[in-house]
Write a structure and sequence with these properties.
This protein is α+β, with helices and mostly antiparallel strands. Helices cover 38% and strands 12% of the residues. The chain is built from eleven helices and twelve strands. The strands form four sheets. The chain has a five-stranded antiparallel β-sheet with strand order 9-8-10-11-12. Strands 2-1-3 form a three-stranded antiparallel β-sheet, with no helix packed on it. Strands 4-7 form a two-stranded antiparallel sheet.
Length: 376
């Protein structure tokens, strides 16, 4: 939202400056002798090392195949940040850095490809000890878990996400310290708990699940920054964009055709959020995704149906509070679905649902137990 042309604000294209779009910023009917001043500001929140160069450049093209390259003076990071960024926090990446642009003759310049986005590495933490009391029933716990998994796998695909203890601890702290009001914290909870894998998936299906998880997070990462704006008014672009909508559609279609398979063995030192999906409900909502406006409540009902039902961690520990939270989310979003979209956006920041808040609190308590995280 920071791009301006001669002081006039220009709208973003798919959530980013028009200068970043594939077609670029296109101007028509520009008369000779007209001075054009284009400004663009970028907020960089990334753990860049001291001395890293940030180069900004542009290519201007006009009729007749003429073009010229422009390069701004390189900026350099003065110091390495003291706090490490994590993928479960607020990962806002900076475009991949390239060497400074040398300005050749105008006819020799070829427009560069759209910038790539670098992903931050995921830290790996050691596994803490978790002590869980044995259930007061005769059959062995491993046998009970095995039968339950077989019964579920026989009827519907299973979705899951594995978290290192450090990633999960960071996600818990982010949700605890969120100062967003109303129902906004629950949107960030869906983002944090969203699955990124499907049991028994082939490489193509696995990539679809990963792409959807990233795409669902992207608009909320940008929204996190906007939350600091006083008297914020939520718009459709804050909640989703075309990329996230397309990725969610692809995921829903892939789940409908996914294999029925048991969950793989959970890696040691991780916490797994997993659950079966209601295929009938998902298929009904799949058609609505095609017609519902961007930023409406429909994608969030779908997202809520995918986040899982249980938490599994070391020592055979398990909690089913995630499933109860999922049910409350679907109930609340189903009520909000009856509102006009502007009213839905307003209610997100002004309404409070104690039952939903308590359900999220129970999930956070279970996750704290899984990673032995004390309450601040």
């Amino acid at each position: 939202g920071s791009t301006t042309l001669n002081g006039m604000a220009l709208g973003d294209d798919l959530g980013t400056s028009q200068l970043w779009s594939q077609r670029g910023l296109l101007l028509t009917d520009v008369n000779p002798g007209i001075e054009l001043q284009v400004r663009w500001e970028m907020l960089v929140i990334a753990p860049l090392a001291a001395g890293t160069a940030i180069d900004t450049r542009a290519v201007v093209e006009w009729d007749g195949g003429h073009s010229i390259g422009l390069a701004a003076p390189a900026l350099r990071v003065l110091s390495t940040p003291s706090m490490q960024a994590g993928s479960a926090g607020t990962p806002i990446s900076v475009a991949a850095l390239q060497p400074a642009l040398e300005i050749p003759a105008p006819e020799a310049i070829v427009p560069p490809p759209p910038p790539a986005i670098e992903e931050l590495p995921r830290p790996v933490a050691s596994a803490p000890r978790v002590e869980v009391a044995a259930p007061p029933i005769a059959p062995a716990p491993s046998r009970i878990e095995e039968i339950s998994a077989e019964e579920i796998a026989a009827s519907t695909p299973l979705l899951y996400a594995d978290f290192s203890h450090e990633d999960l601890a960071q996600a818990i702290r982010s949700l605890e310290k969120s100062d967003a009001g109303g129902l906004i914290p629950h949107l960030f909870a869906i983002r944090a708990f969203f699955p990124n894998a499907i049991a028994g998936a082939d490489p193509r299906l696995a990539q679809t699940a990963e792409n959807a998880a990233r795409a669902v997070r992207a608009p909320l990462d940008r929204f996190f920054v906007r939350l600091r704006v006083p008297r914020l008014t939520i718009t459709a672009k804050d909640l989703e964009d075309r990329d996230s909508r397309f990725a969610l559609r692809a995921l829903v279609g892939a789940i409908a055709d996914a294999p029925i398979a048991p969950l793989s063995t959970r890696p040691g030192g991780t916490v797994r959020l997993s659950g079966a999906v209601d295929l009938d409900a998902l298929r009904r909502r799949a058609g609505e995704l095609e017609q519902a406006p961007l930023g409406s409540v429909v994608p969030w009902i779908v997202n809520a149906q995918l986040i899982g039902e249980r938490v599994d961690y070391n020592g055979g520990g398990r909690s089913d509070v995630l499933g109860l939270y999922r049910l409350e989310l679907i109930k609340v979003f189903s009520v909000l679905e009856t509102l006009p979209m502007p009213e839905f956006h307003r209610v997100l920041t002004s309404s409070v649902n104690r039952t939903l808040d308590d359900a999220l609190g129970a999930v956070l308590d279970a996750l704290r137990s899984a990673v032995h995280l004390a309450v601040d």
